[in-house]
Amino acid sequence: MQSQPVSQEPAARFFFRVTARPRLTVVLSLLVILLCAGGLATIVKDTSVKAFIPPEHPSLVSDALAEEVFGLSDSLAVAIVVTDGGSVFEPARMELVRELTDRIEAMPNVRRERIASLATESSIRGVDGAVEVDPYISRGRIDDADARDAWRRFSAMTPHQDALASADGRAAIIMAELADAKLASDSYEAALAIAEEYRGDGLEIHVAGPGAVSGFLSTYIDRDARKMQPLVFALVLLFIYTAFRRRQAMLGPLLVIAGATGGAMGLMAWMGIPYYAITNALPVVLVAVSVADSIHILTAFYQRRTLHADAPVRELVIEAMVDMWRPITLTTITTIAGFVGISIMSIMPPIIMFGWIAALGVALAWVFSLVSLPNVLVLLDPKPSPAFKSWRHNQPSGIGRALAGIGAFSARNYVVVLSLFALVLVAVAVGASRLHIDRAQVDNFAPDEPIRIADTVINDTFAGSAFLDVIVQADEPEGLLDARRMRKIADLQAYFESLPHVQKTVAITDYLTLLHVAIEELPASAVAERVLPDSDDAIAQYLLVYEASGDPTDFEEEIDTEYRTAMIRGVLNEQHFSRNRDTVARLQSYIEREFSEPGMTAMLTGDVNVSYHWMRSLQRSHFGGVLISLMLVLVTSMLVFRSVSTAIVAVVPVSFTVLMLYAAMASFNIYLEPATSMFAAIAIGVGIDFAIHLIDKLREALALHDEDIFRAVDHALPLTARACYFNSGALAIGFGVLMTSELALLQRFGALVTLAAVCSYVLALSIVPALFAAGRAISVDTFRPVPRMAASMAALILLLSVGMVWSQGAFSQSDDVENNGGLDGAGVARRIAARDEGAASRRILDIVLTDRRGKTRERSALVLKMNDGAERATRFTYLEPKSVREVTFLSHDALDAAASDERWLYLPATRRVRRIPASDRGDYFLGTDFTYEDIQSEFKLSLDDYDFVLDETLKTAGGMRYRISGAPKTPAIGAELGYGGFRAVVNGESWLFNEVEFLDLDGELLKTVTINSAEAFDGIWCATDIEVVNHQTEHQTRFLYERVEFPATLPREAFEANALARGLAAQLQQ
Amino acid sequence: MKSQDPNFPMRRASLTALLLLSFGLTAVRGPATAAELGLTEVPVEASVGVSPAESEVMQLQLEVEPRWDATLGDAGSAVLSFRLRLDGKDELEPGAPPFDNYDGPSKPLTLGDAGTLELRDVYYEHRLSSGLLRVGKQQIVWGRLDGVKILDVLNPQTFREFILDDLGDSRIGLWSAYLDYSVGAWRAELALIPDQTSHDIPEPGAWFELRAPRFRFGAPVDAAGLPRRSEGGSDWLEDGALGLRLSRFVGGVDVSGLYYSGQDHEPLGRVGLGEDGLFLEQYHRRREVLGLSAESSFGPVAWRAELSHQPGRRFNVRGAAGLDEVELDQSVLGVGADIQLPLNLLANVQLLWDRVHDAPAGLIRPNEDQLATVFLRRGFAYETLQTEFRWYHSLTDHDDTMALRASYAVNDELTLFASGEWFTGTPLGLFGQFARQDRVVLGFSRYF
Prior knowledge:
Number of strands of chain A: 25
Radius of gyration of chain B: 22 Å
Number of helices of chain A: 29
Oligomer: heterodimer
Helix content of chain A: 40-55%
Structural class of chain B: mainly beta
Number of strands of chain B: 24
Distance between the termini of chain A: 95 Å
Order of helices and strands of chain B: HEEEEEEEEHEEEEEEEEEEEEEEEE
Structural class of chain A: alpha+beta
Shape of chain B: globular
Distance between the termini of chain B: 34 Å
Largest interface: A-B, 51 and 53 residues
Strand content of chain B: over 45%
Helix content of chain B: under 10%
Number of helices of chain B: 2
Strand order of the largest sheet of chain A: 18-17-16-15-14-13-25-24-23-22-21-20-19
Strand content of chain A: 15-25%
Largest sheet of chain B: 18 strands, antiparallel, barrel
Shape of chain A: globular
């Protein structure tokens, strides 16, 4: 051991002190790890969907209300399906349903009072004007007559059909609500065990439901965590052995991995942060990231050990640390910046926590690498590694030489390399623009997994397993004992049932109808029509009659005991966000329109609603988060390298990698969801390291070789590229392990992040030298550090810009949350934006164009629209005049502003469908006074484009009118739209504009749009006569819509560019 | 000339019958029935062309192109259209051309020296659940680029106005069966074309006569060529063409692959010795075309590309006996983009590389052709006034043509237009061969 530092450098002095007491330091390190990891015993799991929504979010508030008032909680669904052609309404099978219900009821964590099955529910029927409430399955022996009677009664009970049993009697279901969602996994396993006992000939028993899915996900996670984490450790260590071919080499990294992973996860547990579904990937990420520092330090050490086999180990360790502390620190800072960026932009707790804990783990890895690893090396005194024997002659290893050759080629042929890169970049960007956002929890399971099969069976056999509910609340107790309000609820149900994927709704109105039919002896058809009593008194009396005849708690899921809050349960057979979003948005729009009366409000709740808001949050925050992460990485790179150009070079490979991930996801139909949204964050966090290492060593080498880039590349790359190669390999192996997961989601995660690790390395190796060479060709000063002050100023300016963007994002989010019920300017704009457009529409449009001399031209077109949640497709086919007949314009407009629009034009004269550039939103549409934006948005002025101000609220004979005005949020948006602002009068009933005046960019009046008439078609408002006058050209355009229809859907072929030349099917033209 | 065409009476009878049928269809237009006449439109275009070099009128043309659409039940429809051309100056297509490049049933009728009547489309179309079947005389367009034919190989075209006419007007419809069907995300198109019609190349003396040696089997520009004959006789079944195209979207890009096997519409020549001495016989060989094309857009740019490879295509070379035939591979790549520029200006830029591989010395056509085209369009006054600029430049021959056109829609039916075309270069070049053929055209089109 030496008594003095090897040099007078501060870094050398520091590491001299750090390695003064190796045994003590290692023991202390182990103690710290054990102390932190002790927290793992207290870890709490929360794999529910609700965990992803901030607790104060309105969707969770309404969910909590539903839970509080109606006692709703996650449920297990046990389906009994008869496969031998018989029915569940047979004596033996009814007894089985009863027995199974009893067994489920006796399970721990099941709420006994919240079990629904044929064995717990009763039918309502009228006998001679009296109401009889009888259980379907009574206690005691059941004979054929009982079974026939139960079937007869069930057949008349619409609310129970496809809910307790399938309408054809082939299957029955037991719904059991769970007391504690966190124990759902145990409940699911217990229910499965019971189901297994009863499965037999002619009978299938399946277990599913939101509680089961959530529970099973938890089971999966446990299983995967147990399997994968040791495997990751083992594989990564094996890889390190391959890199250094010394067993001793593995111990140091092992300590660093344990410190980073155990420390971060343990501290997470100590802080009471739950283990969310996506946290499963965290240990793997931390293992992969933390080993990177060790590989670089070991490379530096073994190179020195080979060159100076007899030198004191401490001296070599200190030299290696002096050489490596700087790049390791730089990569740690940039990686932390990447993870922190995602955290600060997300509003979803699991993602926020993932980012922070990952950042913490990276910081811990840095500490253990700089403090513990050198001491382990000093203690072990490793022998020279055979992997470095070529360095004895000062020659790089074969791998190092080969990799350096790639870098050297790239630097010498930078024009070719960068041109190719630009071409690939365009292709990748185009691919990335196709990325879709979607989610369904069952997609996390393999298709042959029993839970997924069960979910399919339940969706196919019963009404479905996804719930979207509406809570209607009156201001005062007994406020819902009101015939008019009950009628409104029934109308809401009718509308609700017309929405896509809604199979059934159940509400108190259904039971009132049954009572009404029973008491008044109305025909059975009245049940389907939901005929309700006309007087408030009758409603109160009916409910009283029921309480006298049946169990008073039977309606507790439909209405509270104060008759103030009612719940309408909608059952959907579809869980995907992309397919349900339109249903949720339209229902939200409906309740805002129809239930905004004094004394009564309504709100959405249920898993589908929670998932909808969750995904919308992701949609809003994801791309901003990625951008912020990249900006933070850029800023930190600027600060550490004191050069803007160097920082840009550092972020190029990782930015490309992110785009490539999106493109890969789009091409493999992997949608963006909370878990997959982590790909970008991880890719940034781990991918930036390679570029930083290469740049740091390149800059050192440039200084050594008189700024000669080619000599610098030859000097710097062999060792650094080799270390990065093994680093990338370790990352790829670490993430690749995720591909062995049983969760399809984690498999995708593993594959894509592995791809990111490899891609960011390959790109860094090939692009960084090329960019350096290109920069040098422009000026020898390109990558030289600037004065610290200049770098700090540049970083500050960038940070301020990032801060402004962030604060704007944060404001818009809080605005959305806080002003949900208020009607300021933005509130009016939100109502307009929420106006239902229908999933599809078909209209004949007559266009009258009038020029300043009064000369008119007329044309007519068939306009078809379809909105599938991700994009709005519009087909515009001219019918008249003859000169343009059959000319067809088709556009696919992505609702996600980040995605690009696509347009095609079919000209019969050329017999060719032609892809056309997407015009600016402010361009005029096909020679009219409307812009593309006007046509596509149906005059829904966007909150993203304008700042809205409510100028005046008017009460008129025709209802409420709102006078609002707005200005583009930025001059760039104004230029894009072609408008400098607007003034408008909004109809408070239809949420259409009565009139809008648009100003040009100089603030002069440009045009006035007047809606002369509007009508509601199937509850959807549509302007039927719109007139626009351009005051500057004195040109006018009038749109007259005829034969307006809003069908549930239209043939997909009508919106396919490939089929455009075929014309339209006759039935669509009529 | 008419008497040389043995099919003439039959063709006249069949065209007359079709005309009568079409007027009959017009007459029965009335209450909707299972067979319903959908539309009758008669676009008429009249134009006057002036040669600035000679200050003389060279074109006095009237074009009438009536079209009938009939709906036949829920899934069927039929289309019939003709083109009647009368030209008082008769310089674009002087005299009564023999139209010997046309297969019998496709051949236009000559109406004296100054007129032609041509059946443009007559087909029956049947909609299928995911596609359509169309049988009859029709155009099938598989190319994506504008004004250049790389994969638009199924139909021949007339060079009556060189390449200045719209391809839709200059393309010659062929008797064929066409199936267009979608299977999942794939679109498959199949064409069977028994019709043996080939390119219609202007006769000597025509305004746009192809004078460059490359189009005259190597004959010098001003030399009188040998008398020409066409090889006759082909079997519609054996010599018929087959085309298959598969398309789908891949990552937002419309991608197609095609295969075509059929008659090469460009003629080959060989020198023969007849009773009257030497003559040049024009004949056609088959060719195989493998093609790929793609089209997409990003922001204000829509790009498209076509690539064709024709293995073993036949070409003429100068040989000891005058003209020989060689078998060579040819590849053609074309890329283009529409760019939406500020001020509502649309620009289209295209580049084309056409290369014959391992070309021997004496190949009649150049080993390599490179072409650049630029097109600009801007609408004014709510698109009622349209202005266009077109520029073609041969990077091989270093010559150009420029065309300007302005049209004004007086109303929905009536449009006035004016255009001018200028050519520069040597007579040997692609465009320079028309250096004396500048033209200014004024006219109107009217829909009835």
